[in-house]
Amino acid sequence: MTDTVSSPARRRPWSDRTRLGVDLAFAVPMLLLGVGWLALDWVFAFGLEVWAAQGDQGRIDAASLAHMERLRMLLIALLVPTVLAAVFRARWTVIAHLLLAVLAGGALTAAQHEWDNDHRAPSTMCVRYSANC
Fold it and tell me: Is 0.85 surpassed by the pTM of this model?
């Protein structure tokens, strides 16, 4: 009688949950790195560019648009590892990336809202002349 050697079971990433230590080892530094990047980008990249513009509206607008584009790219860059962490069932990494995505999304929403308020078209439907239309 011959013994057949069974093939090793294929290990799929979603078959077992990622160990807590490994999960936290990825989650905490990625969260700190993301929050640090947001803060440094807001202060140094956007803030110093607006400060250097010295009131030149064209340079301020260019800095605002560049800042919004960097925030969009960060959101895309955050969602890819979030999906990968979800596949590997790394719960804390997913939570950290989603919190960071909410923070970046809020910053992007605030920047777009500020852009919309600054570049609102003048209203042509002014009813009262004393309404500073």
Answer: no
